[in-house]
C-alpha cells in the first residue's frame, strides 16, 4: 500500500491517481514516503497504470486522461538499428505537407548512457570490406548525430520507460518546416511560425510486430504572419500539421542489394567503398521490391509476395477500371524478369477497417486539393541499407475543372517555389514528380484541339482515358524504383508516331517515365494514340535489370548481359540530372520534357502550326451560354504554354551535345560527347525565328484578346488590373526559357568549348543569326509592339554582357556581344519608319547601345 501511495504522489500529472490519493490522506506520512522514494523508484507498472497499452515493435503507453505517451524500450533493442520514416497527412500544400508525402527516411539507434536513452541517426553512406583491416576505422571521422536524449522515468528487468513527447511532439525526427535561404523576404512564402507543444497532440497510435506508427497533430503559431497562404489556410496564425512517425524493424530476410548502373534509371542509395583502391569506388544500390519466385526453377513464376496496390475508396467509380488496367500493364515488364502476376490491383472496400496511412498497405490515393502543387506523386520508402522498397503510395491530385490559372503555373509558380528547401527530405525522395502538371497542360491542349476540330465526346473520353492510364503507369513506375527517362520520347520518327499498329505493339515512346508532349497530328485524319498506353521497351528492360533473380555468383555476369543492350536506341535513357528544362543547365537536347519524336524540331514546328490554326476557333468554341469567358482565357493560356514549351525544346539544340552513356566494351558508334551538327543548330534558330521571333508570329492571337476576361469573384481583381497582359506573356514565350537559354553564360561557354571537339557553330555566328531573326524582317518598316519588346530585350542582354563588371560571361561571349551591338547600331542607321512609335523605339535602342559601348 505504501508503495502505491508513493507512486501516486510522485505522478501529479495523473488526475485519477491524484483524486484517489485524497482518500488516503488521513495520516500524513510525506517525509517517510520521500525517503522511500529515493531508495526505490516507481515501477513501470505504476507509471503506466492509467494508460492504454499499444503492444508491438515498440510498446507505447498513452495516458487515457491527458493523452501523453510513454515509450518502452527493451534492453534487447538498445544498439539495434531501426528505420524511421515520416509522412505528412494534412498540412499546407505549398509547404509539401499534404497527404501521403513521404518525408524523412533514416536509420536510427537507441543507446543507454547513465540514466538516459540517446537517440542517434546512423550514417549509411560508407561500406567497408570486413576482411580489410581498414574496416576497423569504420566509425572514425564520422561524428555521431544524436538528436534526442531523454531521461528514463522507470525501468524493469527487460527495459526502460521514457516520455515520448520529446520525440514525437517535436521536430527532432523530421524538421517539418522548409528553410528559407538568406535574402528571401519573409513575405515570399507561407511561414508556419513556431511549434506549440501545448496545443499539439497524439491522434492515432498503431503498433504491430514489425512497425509502430505514431500520428500526431503538431500545432504551429505565428502571431504575425506576413504571408497568409493559399485558400487551404483557414487562419495563417494557427495551423495544425498532421504527421505520421513510423518506426520500422529492419527487414529480416535474404534480400540482396542490387548495384546501380548509370545506363538505367533507378532511384538509388549512394555508397562509397572505403576499403577500395579503385578510381570508381562506388557501391551504389538501387531501390527495388523484394520479389522472390514461388518456383525458383520456373522460367516464369508467381512471386512469393506480389506487389499489391489498393485503390482508395475515395476514387471516382468511373476511373477505377482504368486505374486497375493501367497498373496491371506493368506485369508485362515483370514477365521479362521472370515473374507472373507480380503486380496486383485491388479496390479498398468502403467498409475497410484499415487506414490508408497504415504503412503495410500501398495505396493509390485520390484527393482534391485547394492548391495542387504536384498533381501526382509516386513515392516509396526503402531500407537505406539495402535499397529494399518497404512501402509505396501514389497520390493523384484532382484539379477542379479547367478554370485553373494555367498562365500563372507556367510563368510564375516555378519562380515562387524554386527557393524552397525541404530539409526533411532525403535527396532520393526529393524527386517530386510534376508530371500531372505538365500532363494536364498537354491534355488541355489536346482537348482544345479536339474541340476545335469538332471531335466527338467519345474521342475526348478516349483521350482522357489514355491520359489517366499514362499518369498511373508513370507514378507506379516510380514506386517500383524507376526514376525519370526524359530521353524516351524520341523513340519513334514523326512518320511512325501515329501508326497505331506499331504503337500498340511497342509503345508510342520508349518509357512511361517521361514527360512527353501529347501526340496530336497536324493532319487530324492521321491521328493515332495521344499517349502511350503500355510499358515501353526501356521499361521492360529496366524492370528486367532490377528484378531478374540471380543465384549468388551469377548476378554480376547476368546484369552485365542485360545492361550490354543499353546501346539499342529504343533503350535510350537520360533522367532529370541531364534534362534540359532549366536554361543553361544540361547538354543533350534529346533529354527533355514536352517534346516528341526523333525529330523534335519538326514536331514542334507542327505544333506551332496547330496552335495558330486552333487560335482562330477559340472565341467561337468557348463563347458559351451561361458561363463567363474564364474558360476561354484558360484555353488560350494553354496554347500559349505550348508555344513556350516547344520553343524551349527547340532552343536546346543550339549548343547542344549528344550524350552516349555506354561503356567502352559496348563499342558504341558514338563518342560519349558529340556536338549537335551545325545544320541542326541552324534549323533550330530558323524555326524559332519563324514561329516566335517573326513580326507576324502572334498575329493569330489578337482576335482573342478582347474576350480574355476572367470571372470576377467578389473584389478579386488584382492590383494591376485583370486585363490580359499580352506583351508581358508573349515576351515570356520568347525569352523565359528560349533566349534566356541561348544567351546563358553556361550555354555560350559550352558552345565555345565544344568548338574544340567538333561543334561548328560559334558564339559570334549564333548572335549574328539571332540579330537576323530579331531585326531583319522589320528594319525597313514600322516595328510592332512584340518586336519592340524583343529587340529591346536582346540589346539589353548584349549590353549587360559587355559590362566589365558582369562576370557571368567568358571573354569570347563578351567579344561577340560587343561585335553584335556594333552591327545592330550600323543596321539601325539604315532603318526606315513612318511612325513616331517606331522612331521612339529605335531611339531607345541606340541610347541603350551608346550607353553600353561607352566606358563607365
Ligand atoms: Zn515522375
UniProtKB/TrEMBL annotation:
Coiled coil: none
Occurrences of domain DUF5117 (ranges): 190-294
Cited Gene3D superfamilies: Collagenase (Catalytic Domain) (3.40.390.10)
Position of the signal peptide: 1-21
InterPro entries: DUF5117, EcxA_zinc-bd, MetalloPept_cat_dom_sf, Zn_MMP-like_bac
GO molecular function, one term: metallopeptidase activity
Domain annotation EcxA zinc-binding: ranges: 462-778
Keywords of this entry: Hydrolase, Metalloprotease, Protease, Signal
Protein name: Zinc-dependent metalloprotease
The species this protein was found in: Niastella soli
Amino acid at each position: 500500500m505504501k508503495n502505491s501511495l508513493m507512486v501516486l504522489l510522485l505522478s501529479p500529472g495523473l488526475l485519477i491517481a491524484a483524486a484517489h490519493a485524497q482518500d488516503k490522506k488521513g495520516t500524513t506520512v510525506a517525509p517517510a514516503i520521500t525517503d522511500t522514494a529515493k531508495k526505490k523508484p516507481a515501477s513501470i507498472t505504476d507509471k503506466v497504470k492509467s494508460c492504454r497499452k499499444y503492444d508491438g515493435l515498440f510498446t507505447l503507453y498513452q495516458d487515457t486522461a491527458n493523452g501523453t505517451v510513454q515509450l518502452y524500450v527493451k534492453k534487447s533493442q538498445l544498439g539495434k538499428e531501426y528505420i524511421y520514416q515520416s509522412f505528412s497527412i494534412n498540412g499546407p500544400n505549398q509547404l509539401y505537407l499534404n497527404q501521403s508525402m513521404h518525408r524523412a527516411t533514416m536509420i536510427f539507434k537507441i543507446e543507454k548512457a547513465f540514466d538516459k536513452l540517446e537517440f542517434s541517426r546512423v550514417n549509411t553512406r560508407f561500406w567497408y570490406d570486413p576482411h580489410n583491416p581498414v574496416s576497423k576505422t569504420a566509425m572514425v571521422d564520422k561524428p555521431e548525430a544524436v538528436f534526442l536524449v531523454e531521461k528514463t522515468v522507470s525501468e524493469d528487468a527487460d527495459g526502460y520507460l521514457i516520455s515520448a513527447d520529446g520525440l514525437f511532439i517535436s521536430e527532432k525526427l523530421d524538421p517539418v518546416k522548409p528553410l528559407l535561404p538568406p535574402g528571401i523576404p519573409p513575405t515570399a512564402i507561407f511561414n508556419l511560425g513556431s511549434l506549440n507543444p501545448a496545443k499539439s497532440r497524439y491522434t492515432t497510435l498503431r503498433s504491430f510486430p514489425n512497425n509502430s506508427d505514431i500520428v500526431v497533430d503538431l500545432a504551429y503559431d505565428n502571431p504575425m504572419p506576413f504571408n497568409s497562404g493559399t485558400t487551404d489556410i483557414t487562419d495563417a496564425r494557427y495551423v495544425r500539421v498532421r504527421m505520421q512517425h513510423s518506426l520500422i524493424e529492419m527487414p529480416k530476410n535474404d534480400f540482396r542489394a542490387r548495384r546501380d548502373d548509370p545506363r538505367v534509371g533507378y532511384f538509388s542509395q549512394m555508397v562509397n567503398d572505403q576499403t577500395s583502391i579503385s578510381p570508381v569506388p562506388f557501391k551504389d544500390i538501387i531501390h527495388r521490391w523484394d520479389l522472390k519466385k514461388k518456383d525458383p526453377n520456373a522460367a516464369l513464376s508467381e512471386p512469393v509476395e506480389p506487389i499489391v496496390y489498393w485503390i482508395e475508396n475515395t476514387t471516382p467509380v468511373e476511373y477505377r477500371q482504368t486505374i486497375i488496367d493501367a497498373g496491371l500493364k506493368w506485369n508485362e515488364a515483370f514477365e521479362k524478369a521472370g515473374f507472373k502476376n507480380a503486380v496486383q490491383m485491388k479496390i479498398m472496400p468502403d467498409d475497410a477497417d484499415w487506414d490508408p496511412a497504415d504503412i503495410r498497405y500501398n495505396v493509390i490515393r485520390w484527393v482534391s486539393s485547394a492548391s495542387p502543387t504536384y498533381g501526382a506523386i509516386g513515392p516509396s520508402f526503402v531500407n537505406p541499407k539495402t535499397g529494399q522498397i518497404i512501402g509505396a503510395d501514389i497520390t493523384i491530385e484532382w484539379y477542379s475543372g479547367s478554370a485553373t490559372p494555367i498562365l500563372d503555373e507556367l510563368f510564375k509558380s516555378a519562380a515562387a517555389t524554386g527557393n524552397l528547401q525541404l530539409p526533411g527530405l532525403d535527396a532520393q525522395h526529393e524527386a517530386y514528380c510534376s508530371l500531372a502538371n505538365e500532363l494536364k497542360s498537354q491534355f488541355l491542349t489536346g482537348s482544345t484541339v479536339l474541340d476545335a476540330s469538332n471531335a466527338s465526346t467519345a474521342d475526348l473520353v478516349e483521350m482522357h482515358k489514355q491520359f489517366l492510364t499514362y499518369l498511373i503507369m508513370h507514378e507506379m513506375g516510380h514506386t517500383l524504383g524507376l526514376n525519370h527517362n526524359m530521353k524516351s520520347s524520341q523513340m519513334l520518327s514523326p512518320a511512325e508516331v501515329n501508326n497505331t499498329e506499331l504503337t500498340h505493339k511497342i509503345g508510342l515512346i520508349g518509357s512511361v517515365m517521361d514527360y512527353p508532349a501529347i501526340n496530336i497530328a497536324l493532319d487530324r485524319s492521321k491521328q493515332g494514340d495521344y499517349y502511350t498506353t503500355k510499358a515501353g521497351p526501356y521499361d521492360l528492360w529496366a524492370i528486367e535489370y532490377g528484378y531478374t533473380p540471380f543465384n549468388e555468383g551469377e548476378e554480376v555476369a547476368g546484369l552485365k548481359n542485360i545492361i550490354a543492350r543499353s546501346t539499342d536506341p529504343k533503350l535510350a535513357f537520360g533522367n532529370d540530372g541531364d534534362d534540359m528544362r532549366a536554361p543553361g543547365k544540361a547538354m543533350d537536347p534529346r533529354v527533355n520534357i514536352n517534346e516528341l519524336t526523333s525529330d523534335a524540331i519538326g514536331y514542334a514546328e507542327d505544333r506551332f502550326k496547330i496552335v495558330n490554326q486552333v487560335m482562330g476557333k477559340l472565341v467561337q468554341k468557348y463563347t458559351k451560354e451561361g458561363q463567363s469567358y474564364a474558360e476561354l482565357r484558360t484555353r488560350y493560356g494553354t496554347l500559349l504554354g505550348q508555344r513556350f514549351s516547344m520553343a524551349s525544346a527547340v532552343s536546346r539544340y543550339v549548343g547542344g551535345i549528344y550524350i552516349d552513356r555506354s561503356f567502352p566494351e559496348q563499342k558504341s558508334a558514338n563518342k560519349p560527347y558529340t556536338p549537335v551538327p551545325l545544320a541542326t543548330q541552324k534549323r533550330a534558330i530558323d524555326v524559332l525565328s519563324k514561329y516566335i521571333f517573326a513580326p507576324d508570329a502572334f498575329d493569330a492571337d489578337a482576335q482573342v484578346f478582347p474576350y480574355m476576361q476572367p470571372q470576377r469573384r467578389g473584389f478579386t481583381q488584382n492590383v494591376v488590373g485583370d486585363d490580359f497582359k499580352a506583351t508581358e506573356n508573349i515576351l515570356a514565350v520568347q525569352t523565359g526559357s528560349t533566349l534566356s537559354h541561348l544567351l546563358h553564360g553556361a550555354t555560350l561557354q559550352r558552345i565555345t568549348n565544344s568548338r574544340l571537339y567538333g561543334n561548328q557553330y560559334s558564339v559570334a555566328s549564333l548572335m549574328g543569326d539571332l540579330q537576323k531573326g530579331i531585326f531583319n524582317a522589320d528594319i525597313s518598316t514600322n516595328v510592332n509592339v512584340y518586336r519592340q519588346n524583343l529587340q529591346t530585350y536582346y540589346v539589353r542582354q548584349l549590353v549587360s554582357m559587355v559590362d566589365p563588371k558582369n562576370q557571368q560571361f567568358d571573354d569570347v561571349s563578351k567579344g561577340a556581344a560587343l561585335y553584335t551591338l556594333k552591327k545592330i547600331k550600323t543596321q539601325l542607321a539604315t532603318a526606315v519608319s513612318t511612325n513616331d512609335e517606331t522612331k521612339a523605339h529605335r531611339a531607345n535602342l541606340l541610347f541603350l547601345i551608346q550607353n553600353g559601348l561607352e566606358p563607365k
